[in-house]
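From the thread on structure requests for the teaching lab: each student submitted one protein with a one-line request. Submission from student K.M.:

"Model M16 family metallopeptidase from Alteraurantiacibacter lauratis, tokens only."
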Amino acid sequence: MTLIRRLTRVLAPLLILAVPAPLLAQDDCTIGVASQADVPAFAMPDDPWIFRGTDIPVDPQWLMGELPNGVRYAVRRNGVPPCQVSIRVRIDAGSLHEEEGEQGFAHLIEHLTFRQSRHFGPGEAIPHFQRWGAGLGFDTNAITSPTHTVYQLDLPGAFRQRLEESMMLFAGMIQEPTLSAENLAADVPIVLAERRERLGADMRIAVATRELFYTGQRLAQRAPIGTVEALQGATPEAVRAFHQRWYRPENTVVVMVGDASPQVLAAMVERHFGGWQVPGTPTPAPDFGQPAMPEGADPGNPVGETAVIVEAGQPRAVSYAVLRPFVEVVDNLEYNRGLLIDAVAQAILNQRLEQNARAGASYLYAQVRRDKVSRSADGTFVDFAPLGEDWRAALADVRAVIADALVNPPTEAEIEQAAAQYDIAFVDMVGQARIEAGSKLADDIVNAVDIREAVAAPETFLSVFRSLRPRLTPDTLLRHTQDLFKGNVVRGILLTPVPGEATAADVRAALLAPVDTAALARNDGPAISFADLPPIGAPADPALREPLGPGLVSTTERIVFPNGVRALLRDSDNEPGRVTVRVRFGQGRAGFAPGEGVYAELGTRALVSSGVGPLGQNEIDRIGAGRKLTFGFSVGEGVFTFEGLTRAEDLEDQLYLFAAKLDQPRWDVAPVERAKASALLGYDAQDNDPMSVLNRDLETLLRGGDPRFARPTPDDLRSATAGEFRRVWSRMLAQGPVEVAVFGDIDPEATVAALSRTFGALDPRGDARPVLDPPGFAAANSVPHILYHGGDPDQAAAVIAWPTGGGSAGLPQSRKLEVLAQLIANRLLDGLRETAGSSYTPFATSNWPLDMDGGGYLMALVQIAPRDMDAFYTEVDKIVRDLSANGPSEDELARVIEPMRQYILRAQTGHTFWLGQIQGGAFDPMRVAQLPSLAADYVLTTREEMQALAQRYLLGHGGTRVAVLPRTGEAAALVGR
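Reply posted by the TA:
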């Protein structure tokens, strides 16, 4: 029963900002029934196919139908965002449908479908949809899984003619792609580049795990990316045969959700898919197989195959699975009640595992999950990471928690905590139903079809969950926990960086060894009330309340408290029941002293979990039961940020947690030691592929070695102490100024009162914006700075970056630099992917820090084979010279600007869009002053402006080049020849 949200159209007016109306505003684009052509012939409102055979209440907002040729469809009106229609075409064929010599064909056809088809010439599809505002990857995409292939289009500005044409084009792509030798020659290298970028330890681990867990099944040997041999051997005839075998009407489901009458959408599906005929009889789906014990195994001993994977540099990890046959179920209400009881049982078990990790168990983390995998197995999976080398002790600790849960039922306190969290989640889903995006609704239908289940409205989920609350007894949950660990076979795998550390027999023996459940931690103490917590201080009323400014920000209130804390409030009911709280304070990375950088890393991992006032992490878990509270923390370049997603009735509690962390921080040692262990365990893995090396080292290089922005080394981590962590973060938490932004569905007066009792009650914080020292930037170089990785010899990465600027005064220019970055990204995509086939994911991005006057950069990055490294730099130099000399063409500028325009149109209906634009504005008036030109800075960008920016920033500096090569002497010689 997939979650489906009921919604009504959001009638929020689109703000025009400072752009002429024709450029940004759109007329009402809801498509209504206009003639007999808009009346479908095969809609079945009284017999929707996805609800057949189930007692799940039919969601009447879906209109479903079946065409005589076998195509099924599901359509629905939705106005979120306005003027958009989301189209999904699902083909019931993925990698599990491939024969031995076809491995990779399902995914290859996905690429070929976008290459050329009935109505599109070579390479025309993506640019066409970009001109209509659909961004590649964001709005236009496709997915191939083991069980299906799904084509996706989220079409903005979906007026009738454009939508009709899009359906015609999309149908032509699916039904008649041009599977020619020329297109194979163009797309096979792209797929091989995609495969190469995925190579490395993670892929080898995934392959080995899949081969072990699904031994004897198709899933063990068929990944969607395919094999080099099959892809290089693909012929037009073989690919066409696969397409004809599986791309058939009876294997197709079309979903349309958007700003149009369901009758109109259904009629469009019928017009463009009703005439589709494929010769021959349908091919039955292959038998995916079932998990089973090996022949001759002891039927009384469920532990079957085990294995050891050796990957140098990877942290130790253990996974084991209790596997059962996949059974297609009757998706009814009682079946879902059982799933919900399973979910509560899993939540209690996972909470116990986490509590024991916090209490000093020998594992860093552990999790139990149940999953139905690719219609091939129904499994309960246990995954954990040992804290050190003794994986046997960690396995014993994890198995002890599970063994205890299989004998001793949960307490009422544990049940109440887990049930309360599910209840609040379902309540939130009901509240958000009317603003659920059409794209999400379309994806829900597709996923339900894939797992052969129905869909349900969120009200149904809440009702079903609350109806079974009396059944959530200790004995019932004990039985469901026991059922989770019953199966046909148990298979386990150890990942280790050390050859010879263990054998498969050792893993098997450890899975069978007895365990001791005597000393286990449980978080089943009494409930905790916020009313019992110490106050922050004496409440203080605001010293000033005023509109943030005229026009666009007149609905945002600026509040100043006597202690220097400032707040921004925006009451918005277009996301009912949802409130976002964002607290900005301090100086971020720029505020660390030399030698303190390691504590920035540890702070992101341990600051929140080290506690608040009298509350440790376990107590925070308990006090949050039945409330919607979150506690995010991030370290920015020039600011620290707490963020929480809550609701009006829990808003004061959310504010209390954040204010208490500033005023009454707790300094539990265990979270710091755990954070150190986590960082150390994962450090060596950062050497195993080019992108991991860049994630670790690139910022340091680009920042000219500035120690504030350096990633800590293992020696840094080992020498870090809990005492020094407390000293550094005590200073950071005390830094002012403090800005609290509360945006969403709020009562402004109640919110101000809650702020007065929390942030207004803090000790004085100061109200002057700090002047931050921005980092420098590395010098330009013609020969790249070389980094090395220890992974696959055919993998490399290359970067070129140019310094730009920072600060809110330059906001208009920063927006135009985003346009320039996307122009470069599109040219790299056209040159390196679509033409040369040498890279799958080249991209470019612009970073402009607003909290400091400097430190920004524009960067282009590519994953590529070492032999093609020079081609990247040659292509970038060519792009820079041309953009500096000529600027972009009008067409390519339109392909960038229109998706940006459509993004603004869609995003501005949500309060987090405005929060992102206004944050910092309580202290920085330039952010507010620059807001009216937001859309114009993107939409009215000219070719001449792009040319001038390219000349100033790209030619002016020349670029800092960084390359990551495999650790071989020959590879380095490939660069700068």
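TA comment: The chain has 32 helices and 25 strands. The two ends are 59 Å apart (CA to CA).
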